[in-house]
Design a protein that fits this description.
By secondary structure, the protein is mainly alpha-helical. Helix content is about 60%, strand content about 0%. The protein has helices at about 1-10, 20-30, 35, 60-75, 80-90. It is globular. It starts with a helix and ends in a 5-residue tail after the last helix.
């Protein structure tokens, strides 16, 4: 997965990357393990800028949100922490 995405990124500009590739980059950055993130990808369409497809279960969304909030809290990005916290509140997800 990582090798394929690295090759794909080398051949395309960042703004031309498909949505699933941007998802992969985000999931890697926030520390989701490959075996759990394989079910999180959305290949058919771009769902949102939070990289949380609407088709996921509440438990899966919870996993992504918690990892994202921890990551952004760790790097002291308060704006993104607030955005993910609001996303969780809107979707009735505990964080």
């Amino acid at each position: 997965e990582n090798t394929y995405s690295d090759l794909y990124r080398k051949n395309l500009k960042d703004n031309e990357l498909p949505y699933w590739m941007k998802q992969h980059n985000f999931y890697s950055k926030i520390g989701l393990k490959p075996e759990c993130r394989k079910d999180f990808y959305s290949f058919s369409n771009k769902d949102n800028d939070f990289f949380i497809p609407k088709t996921l279960t509440k438990k899966q969304k919870h996993k992504i949100c918690n990892a994202a909030i921890k990551y952004y809290f760790h790097i002291k990005n308060k704006d993104m922490v607030k955005k993910y916290a609001n996303f969780c509140k809107e979707n009735n997800i505990k964080y």
